[in-house]
Design goal:
With about 325 residues, the protein is mainly alpha-helical. Helices cover about 75% and strands about 0% of the residues. The protein folds into 2 domains: about 1-80, no CATH class; about 100-275, MetI-like fold. It contains 13 helices and no strands. The radius of gyration is 24 Å and the shape is flat.
Length: about 325
């Protein structure tokens, strides 16, 4: 187990390095000059930029150095958890992220909880239904949320429940009622996927000989699902749920924009629009670290769910 964890940690560090390197190269290849964007400020594209001021600011930010030197300094700073200052605001990137993270974690946590509860409940409920048509109907109904674009779902929810019925606030954050519609918008695609994967896993597990034997001995369908089938069917669903964590954080970009919520999603959109390289690199690092940690955690949980699984390093 210890060797496996060490190997996975090393692999995770390689993934983070690759993500940081890719982000550095891509940001230096995209058209646009962050110095020009900063100097124009609110004036827009038509505002003239003083070449002398641009050169001075470029030297101050270290953008006049060779690319390889910028890369080495960037990797060294990232290894120490330092990402410099934001081109747009001039604040430390860690402080900028610290101000945006709580709202996104609140939204992502609510969406993940909703995904887990509704997805598992729908899959289990479908497995307990007496006839195949009813089970198929429940599983098929959850696909709707996965098929609809998040921005469209958010707009429809706003139109119906905020502007129409007035049940929930339309925009902003800070109140539990302002969290409901964004969390539903963010959770719906995941609910459909989780229900489908867990439902199919339960259907396959219920067809196994050991479950049929339990049923022949008098076990009810509910006991067969909860005691015998659910644990074995949970492995693929756990893998999917681990991937969903990163997907939900990424989906916050659209959701926070639609509902005018402050958070990492809106910060990402603004950083891309203003070529704020330090913030973008920190966000890439944060996303990569999240994926690495979550995938490692899911792998370590596997043997607890199914003792037949033994973790070995390749």
């Amino acid at each position: 187990m210890t060797r496996y964890v060490l190997v996975r940690v090393v692999n995770g560090l390689f993934v983070l390095w690759a993500a940081l390197t890719a982000s550095f190269l891509v940001l230096h290849l995209v058209p646009g000059d962050p110095v020009a964007v900063m100097l124009r400020g609110a004036g827009g594209e038509g505002t003239a930029v003083d070449p002398a001021a641009a050169d001075e600011l470029r030297a101050e930010l270290g953008l006049d150095q060779p690319v390889y030197r910028q890369y080495l300094e960037f990797v060294g700073d990232a290894a120490r958890g330092e990402f410099g200052t934001s081109f747009r605001s001039g604040d430390e990137v860690t402080a900028v992220l610290g101000g945006a993270l709580p709202a996104t974690l609140e939204l992502a946590g609510a969406a993940l909880l909703l995904t887990l509860v509704v997805g598992v409940a729908a899959a289990v409920a479908a497995s307990l239904l007496p006839t195949a048509p009813l089970r198929s109907a429940v599983l098929s109904s959850t696909v709707v949320g996965n098929a609809l674009p998040s921005f469209w779902t958010g707009i429809i929810l706003l139109q119906v429940f905020s502007f129409g019925l007035g049940w929930f606030p339309a925009f902003g954050a800070g109140d539990l009622s302002q969290l409901v519609l964004p969390a539903i918008t963010l959770a719906l695609p995941g609910i459909g996927l989780l229900t489908q994967v867990l439902g199919r896993g339960l259907r396959a597990a219920l067809a196994e000989p050991y479950v049929r034997t339990a049923r022949a001995k008098g076990a009810s369908r509910a006991r067969a699902v909860f005691v015998h089938a659910l644990r074995n069917a949970a492995i693929p669903a756990m893998t999917l749920f681990g991937l969903m964590i990163g997907g939900i954080v990424a989906g916050a970009v659209v959701t926070e924009t639609v509902f005018a919520r402050e958070g990492v999603g809106r910060l990402t959109a603004e950083a891309i629009g203003t070529h704020d390289f330090p913030v973008i690199r920190a966000l890439v690092f944060l996303a990569g670290a999240l994926y690495v940690v979550v995938n490692l955690a899911v792998d370590l949980i596997y043997p607890r769910v199914d003792p037949r699984i033994v973790l070995r390093s390749a």
